[in-house]
Design brief:
By secondary structure, the chain is α/β, with parallel strands linked by helices. It has helices at residues 98-111, 120-128, 160-167, 225-241, 246-255, 257-280, and strands at 37-41, 58-62, 79-82, 115-118, 132-135, 141-149, 176-183, 185-189, 195-199, 207-210, 214-217. Helix 1 (98-111) links the parallel strand 3 and strand 4.
């Protein structure tokens, strides 16, 4: 399968099980704030919030591909989550709701509403705020891929907790983790003022922050094995064209499932905390 990292360049995803954690994996989720309401933009039927769901506040799920309207602004919501999809960040004819999605992301950055963009969502965030997105020259990045956290992530509100947990098992190297990926488009140039938080050997812009409350991550902390398997059914030809065996890709993700849950929990709890903080003022 495609591995963005070289041997030993990041901890194996299963190493996350050895990291200390202040969370309680498997415990009942604690609502971050009873009044918090999160707008979630879903681009495809197999692209929902998945693993993140149980730790997030009340979700207002919008499926514009199925006819759901997007709100004109974020006045009725306390946060914004924009998920992934097979279309590109500029494919407005294929997905005519993309301009409205970009406008909501730009509004979130301008007004300080917490926002998280995942894969396509991260690319839309970059385009909406002056970055550049296009076809990546490094080819398809798919499967369980290593991501390295950069020093700027150490005190980041979204990734700081994960950075601390992983630094304890990094052995003096850069803290990193394995996570699900499926993309070839990429953020080629970060928006002005963006802080790069995580990188990879194949694609360097794996996570970034804009301002204090908006993030984009190229990888997929949310995707479940079932949804990834659906992606594989639709894209197994491209996977094989890149010299990978779909069954091997799925087997590696399945083996990493407990650690992937920990990664999802860390992202979701941290983002929910920022939403709660915004609600509390």
């Amino acid at each position: 399968m495609t591995r963005a990292e070289g041997p030993g360049s990041v901890p194996r995803v299963t190493d996350l099980a050895a990291a200390p954690s202040t969370g309680q994996p498997g415990a009942a989720p604690r609502p971050p704030h009873p009044a918090a309401r999160l707008l979630v933009v879903i681009h495809e039927g197999d692209g929902g919030p998945g693993r993140l769901t149980r730790w997030l506040p009340e979700l207002d799920l919008r499926r514009p591909y199925a006819g759901d309207p997007l709100p004109a602004d974020l006045s009725g919501h306390d946060g914004l989550l924009v998920l992934g999809g097979a279309m590109g960040a500029h494919d407005d004819e294929q997905a005519p709701w993309l301009p409205a999605t970009r406008a909501l992301l730009a509004e979130a950055v301008d007004t300080g509403v917490p926002a998280l963009g995942i894969c396509l969502g991260a690319q839309l965030l970059a385009v909406a705020t002056g970055g550049q997105v296009g076809r990546g020259e490094a080819g398809l990045e798919v499967g369980l891929v290593g991501v390295r956290l950069l020093p700027a992530a150490a005190d980041d509100p979204l990734l700081g907790g994960l950075h601390r947990d992983l630094a304890a098992v990094a052995g003096g190297g850069a803290p990193g983790f394995g996570v699900a990926q499926w993309h070839q488009d990429a953020v080629l140039r970060l928006p002005p003022g963006a802080v790069l938080l995580a990188g990879g050997d194949r694609y360097p812009h794996q996570a970034f922050r804009l301002g204090e409350r908006a993030w984009g991550v190229q990888y997929h902390p949310e995707v479940t094995r079932a949804d990834f398997e659906e992606w594989m059914r639709g894209g197994h030809g491209a996977v094989r064209e890149h010299g990978l065996q779909p069954e091997n890709v799925l087997a590696e993700l399945t083996a990493a499932d407990p650690a992937l849950d920990r990664i999802a929990e860390s992202h979701a709890r941290a983002f929910a905390a920022r939403v709660a903080q915004a609600v509390a003022g």
